Amino acid sequence: MPVSLRVLATGGTIAGVASSSASSTDYQPAALGIDTLLDAVPALRDVAQVDGRQIAAIDSRNASPEFWKVVGRAVQDALDDPAIDGVVVTHGTDTVEETAWYLHLTLKSNKPVVMVAAMRPASSLSADGPLNLLNAARVAADPRAAGRGVMLVLNHQIFGARGTRKTHTMRPDAFSSVDGVLGQVHDEVIDWTIRSEYPHTMATPFSIDTPLVDVEILMAYTGASPALIDAVRTSGAGGLIWAGSGNGSASDDALVGLRRAASAGLVVVRASRTGDGPVHKQENDVPEAERLLNAGTLNPIQARILLMLALGHGMSAAEAFTKF
């Protein structure tokens, strides 16, 4: 029996159109519908039976937690359908890493889920979207993709949701992963190399129905005002991610503000703005009420999403950042 995939379209550059085929930056995202995207890749028929559905049409810079839930429910419905073997989600590159990580932590299925995007609009002379979409379908149709959680397929590489980030504004090789790529895909050949050891999908207590508590991010920089920390503390947010310099560092003034916030009940997690490397600091010399948690190898963006879910679920933040 042939593999059956559901392709869910949400907009983004992969569905973008410019006034000139020579333009790759001045274009209208989310201009093309799912049928047009699928028709542009006739080779999809050789990979699987494809059921395409349009669930949103946005520039991903406008994504929101409510949007995550809309996508999550559509993906979960597809995964719950016994006739569907895997799901592909088209998305804009600006925030695809955030949506992928949210889905990675909340979906409940071992079926493959693959996010796909493009750095160049569909109208470009050398659009990368069609081949990315074909490769994403190939990965989603591969039985070996099962149980790996949510993945991203871009520029022939297979990324796991955890640790993946956009690292360039324009190039088609704009993504990288601090955890390493899961594999490569070239034509019909898929070369799997690693598998993440961190819990995801079926192994987390979170779901699409888990409430998302407001969490803010502040970044360290020379001369940063501690007043911003106080503003978050009094804003009603449940948590704060500190994107510190180096190993999650904060100036003496900022540290006073962060500890004051923690003492007032705000959950404060220290991450790093550097883009790579763990934050593992001990604070044994600080009263427990003022201690700051550490994000480990999660970047500030992914640390925020984990904390939003952990607080919404009622899980200890310390436990969340130890497990995930």
UniProtKB/TrEMBL annotation:
Q: Where in this chain does the record put each L-asparaginase N-terminal domain?
A: 6-192
Asked if the keyword Hydrolase belongs to this entry, the reply reads: yes
Q: Which InterPro entries match?
A: AsnASE_II (IPR004550), Asp/glu_Ase-like_sf (IPR036152), Asparaginase/glutaminase-like (IPR006034), Asparaginase/glutaminase_AS1 (IPR020827), Asparaginase/glutaminase_AS2 (IPR027475), Asparaginase_C (IPR040919), L-asparaginase_C (IPR027473), L-asparaginase_N (IPR027474)
Keywords associated with the record: Hydrolase
| SUPFAM superfamilies reported in the protein's UniProt record | Glutaminase/Asparaginase
A single GO BP term for this record reads:
asparagine metabolic process
Q: Which Pfam families match?
A: Asparaginase, Asparaginase_C
Q: Which sites bind substrate?
A: S60, T93, D94
Which top-rank group of organisms is this from? Bacteria
**GO MF:** asparaginase activity
Which part of the chain is the Asparaginase/glutaminase C-terminal domain? 214-319
Q: Which residues form the active site?
A: T13 (o-isoaspartyl threonine intermediate), T13, T93
Q: Provide the family line.
A: Belongs to the asparaginase 1 family.
Name the PANTHER family on file.
Answer: 60 KDA LYSOPHOSPHOLIPASE, L-ASPARAGINASE
Instruction: Name the chain's protein.
Output: Asparaginase
**In which organism is this protein found?**
Pigmentiphaga aceris
Taxonomic placement: Bacteria, Pseudomonadati, Pseudomonadota, Betaproteobacteria, Burkholderiales
